[in-house]
Amino acid sequence: MSAGESVNPQPLADELSKVLTKHLRYLRGAAGGERANLANADLSGHLLVGLNLEALLASGANFRGSDLSGSNLRFADLFCANLEYANCTRTDLSRSDLRGAKLRGARLAGANLREADLRPGSLGVGSAESSEVDLSMAVLDHADLREANIVRASMAKSSMVSANLAGAMLPNVDLSECDLRNANLSRVKLSGANLTGTNLRGASLVGADLSGARISDTDFTGADLKNATIGASPDASSIPTPRAIDLHERWIRSSGGEGQRADFTGRDLSGSDLRARDLSGAVMIRTILRRAKMSGVKLQMALLGGANLFEADLTDADLSGADLSYAILQAACLCRANCGPLQILDPYGQRTGRLAVTNLTGADLRKTDLSYANFGRAITTGTMFAGAIVKDSIMPRPN
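Predicted structure:
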């Protein structure tokens, strides 16, 4: 077989073995070596475990249902390859070309996709339409996706528990209903991404860009949003505050069927009268609420990371399950406030057995009145309590 020539669409086992043996010699720089070219080959259902396939040429190849676990595919050309339902557990795909690849249902737990190219691609010459990478329902738990380029891909319902996506490019990616618990998403570009129903409990989003991302029903419980950008959509930012609150309360009463979730990211609401309003689940990241009147307000599972609540009155406020990481609450009044855990309910109002705890990581509560407040199970790593009044309050155990 001459260099640059593809094998037959359905190569025989012995022919494939010869091709791969020559490829191994090629990688070693040995005599008789030849870079394997499996472009457009049908390798569906093949057992390719633990092989050294570095720099393999396999654009358009069909690996559907194949077992590539533990194999080395660094720098491989997998442009528009079909890897649907393939077993790529612990496979090294770093710096591989996966543009336009099909990875639906693939098992990529522990795989290395660092600096992999997962942008759209098409084999059609002069085609105006490029196929988006399909990673929907894929398993990428503990996978390494650092600096990966995943533009406009579909990753809906995929599992990326404890995956490392630091510095990855994921603009306009569909991550709806993904499981990203405890994932590292620091410095990730998620602008315009769909995070509807995504589980980001305990994830690190330090310095992440979520501007324009859809975050309806997104679970940020315990997530670290320090220096993250969650910009309001143009429509949301233009709505006057009283109207936005009315729409938000309508959104709550209808379980999301009507109205609109409030997004006050970065707004200055200093001195606002929010007494007894229901802002549960509202997005108030870096919102300025200095000296705001908020007694009796409901802020269950609200996102208040980095918000400024200096001298705000939060007497009797319900902050259960809210994210107050790095918020400024200095000299505020949280007398009788509830910062305890919140029972998570399913869509039918039934208990799920899961709790959302209030996140006070790095928050400033110096000289704050916490009399009779409940902080049971709250996360208080790096929280500042110097000079706070804690009379008869329930304080959390040291983290």
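Summary: The chain has a mean pLDDT of 88.
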